[in-house]
Specification:
Blueprint: H1 22-32, E1 37-41, E2 44-47, H2 48-63, E3 72-76, H3 81-92, E4 96-99, H4 106-116, E5 118-124, H5 128-137, E6 143-147, H6 164-169, E7 186-191, E8 201-205, H7 206-220, E9 227-229, H8 237-240, H9 242-248, E10 252-254, H10 261-270, E11 275-278, H11 280-287, E12 302-305, H12 312-320, E13 324-331, E14 336-340, H13 352-359, E15 364-365, E16 369-375, E17 391-397, E18 403-404, H14 408-414, E19 420-428, E20 434-439, E21 443-446, E22 449-452, H15 453-460, E23 466-476, E24 480-489, H16 497-505, E25 516-519, H17 532-540
Parallel strand pairs: 1-10, 3-4, 3-5, 4-7, 5-6, 9-10, 9-11, 11-12, 12-13, 24-25
Antiparallel strand pairs: 1-2, 7-8, 8-18, 13-14, 14-15, 16-17, 17-19, 19-20, 21-22, 23-24
Helix pairs in contact: 1-2, 1-9, 2-3, 4-5, 7-9, 11-12, 12-13
């Protein structure tokens, strides 16, 4: 057979092929716009030249700790400059970044650090109590670096003799940071909520993170020099890859340590913010703010919203307040957003109710996603485009994870049939848009954070009086959903709802605890399986 003429003497070489990485995009911006404002945090201001220099020094300091390719650097940080620097510096050192949920309990933190084999940990003083407890539990013994926020007076115990600024300044600003050997190399690991046991480590690669930079720019219409407000936690799917994305667009990061209504409005007005992301809870917080907390905005702000579909009333209020809402959907396994509600101009003419109904759909594939559909998970056939037949949401493309860290069985199950199985159930419309209808994994999304119903049930079962338990998401005006537990108990002294909630609070993070407990017999199948759908129907009726 004659060789394809377009494959003759046309091989890859350093001149025509370089691995994709967000780091080269960051380097480009720092070279072109060195004096442009990169980071606003309290009263501090950092240019791109300074941001790039500090990231290189931090990468150097990390490398001096004998951190090499494939080693994990964990961080427990708020939305602060240190978190932005870690997103650049850790991969610059060739290592893998592990951002931890600041709301987790010590046991889960310890599990994650052990599973990821953490070699170095950077932690904010605010989280010293839970990190101290986690370090006492975990087997790994990472080098610990304390971050003391220079802009805010944070009380907390020092866990190390090494402070972040001291550590960074030991780095060499001439350090030659490392390009990935291959764009398939891991850049970060993020942990799921652990719906069936321990959390799973979701591994991202440099290629996917880079393509997310381009996709986020297109989806949010960032343009050049956007001003981005950090209402989305940077620990969550690496902030949907926006720490890298905003640098790509030569934008300004406006750090927000605590998400509060007055602080949001002040930042929006004072810094002329153009873009922000978050869960519906952030929108609800803004719309329900006191009159004296709100500020008049001269610019339109694009709000990229994900998690549970925003209540139509909130969507309407945001639109009436002048915000442009972009509805996206995704999972930890898809680098954050993997679908978007691509808005069509003709929908602007629809009545308000029809318009908000269109807006609530999860939409079509993200620019860097090659495949999105709804399939029967057994036959792997696409469901009819009737908006009624339910199937499982399936993804395929370059912004799907490498797989689950040290968990080949779960990875193979997730990729069965050549598609990523999301576990979410939805319908497909004739225009190709999808809409979620349920979550087959029974994950409760509260304020943008995933809560495993199984994890909560396991805690309830630790109580000697609980004989059966089922936890489902209860609609909540503020949080979108909150956990509600239905339990059966054995005979004995009076056991109140308050008693059982307090029992849970002693054993897990408070945000995961049931907000309501209903006592009584649970509906079951003939084989004894609890019928959760009937419990959910109680809320609807």
């Amino acid at each position: 057979m004659t060789e394809n003429i377009f494959e003759q003497n046309l091989d890859k070489n350093p001149a025509n092929y370089q691995p994709l990485t967000p780091l080269s995009l960051f380097e480009r911006t720092a070279a072109i716009f060195p004096e442009h404002l990169a980071i606003i945090h309290g009263e501090s201001r950092t240019t791109y030249a300074e941001y790039y220099k500090r990231s290189i020094k931090l990468a150097s300091a990390i490398s001096q700790q004998n951190i090499k390719k494939g080693d994990t650097v964990s961080v427990m940080l708020s939305n602060t400059p240190s978190m932005l620097e870690a997103h650049m510096a850790v991969p610059m050192a060739g290592a893998v970044l592990h951002t931890m949920n600041t709301r987790l309990d010590a046991e889960i933190i310890a599990f994650q650090m052990d599973h990821a084999e953490t070699k170095l940990l950077i932690t904010d003083l605010e989280f010293s109590p839970v990190i101290k407890a986690a370090l006492e539990i975990c087997k790994s013994r990472p080098v610990v670096i304390d971050y003391v926020d220079p802009e805010f007076d944070i009380e907390g115990e020092r866990l190390s003799s090494i402070e972040y600024e001291e550590f960074l300044n030991k780095g060499d600003e001439t350090f030659q940071w490392k390009m990935p050997d291959d764009e398939w190399d891991a850049i970060s690991v993020s942990y799921t909520s652990g719906t069936t046991g321990n959390p799973k480590g979701v591994v991202y690669h440099h290629r996917g993170a880079t393509l997310m930079c381009y996709s986020n720019n297109l989806a949010a219409d960032l343009g050049t020099h956007p001003v981005y407000l950090w209402t989305l936690p940077m620990f969550h799917c690496n902030g949907w890859c926006f720490p890298w994305t905003i640098a790509t667009a030569a934008g300004t990061h406006v750090c927000l340590r605590w998400v509060r209504a007055n602080a949001i409005y002040d930042a929006l007005a004072d810094h002329r913010v153009t873009h922000m992301c978050g869960a519906p809870i952030v929108m609800s917080t803004m719309m329900s703010a006191l009159k004296e907390e709100k500020r008049t905005l001269e610019q339109q702000v694009t709000f990229v919203a994900a998690a549970a579909p925003p209540p139509e009333s909130v969507l309407r209020a945001m639109t009436e307040a002048g915000f442009k809402v972009v509805h996206v959907y995704g999972l930890t396994e898809t680098y954050g957003p993997a679908t978007m509600n691509a808005w069509k101009s003709e929908w602007d003419e629809l009545p308000v109710q029809e318009r908000t109904t269109k807006m609530a759909r999860q939409g079509v594939s993200y620019p860097a996603l090659e495949g999105l559909t709804i399939m029967d998970p057994v036959t792997m056939e696409v469901v009819p485009k009737d908006g009624e037949t339910m199937g499982e949401v399936m993804f395929r493309g370059n912004i799907v994870m490498k797989g689950y860290l040290k968990n080949p069985e779960a990875t193979n199950d997730a990729f069965a049939g050549g598609w990523f199985h999301s576990g979410d159930l939805g319908v497909l419309y004739d225009d190709g848009y999808i809409q979620l209808k349920d979550r087959s994994k029974d994950v409760i999304i509260s304020g943008g954070e995933n809560i495993s119903s199984i994890e909560v049930e396991n805690i309830l079962f630790k109580h000697e009086r609980v004989t059966a338990a089922a936890v489902v998401g209860m609609p909540d005006e503020k949080w979108g959903e909150t956990p509600c537990a239905f339990v059966e108990i054995s005979e004995g002294p009076e056991l109140s709802e308050t008693d059982l909630i307090e029992f849970c609070r002693e054993k897990m993070a408070r945000f995961k605890c049931p907000k309501r407990i209903v006592f009584g017999e649970l509906p079951k199948t003939s084989t004894g399986k609890i019928q959760k759908f009937k419990l959910r129907e109680q809320f609807k009726s």
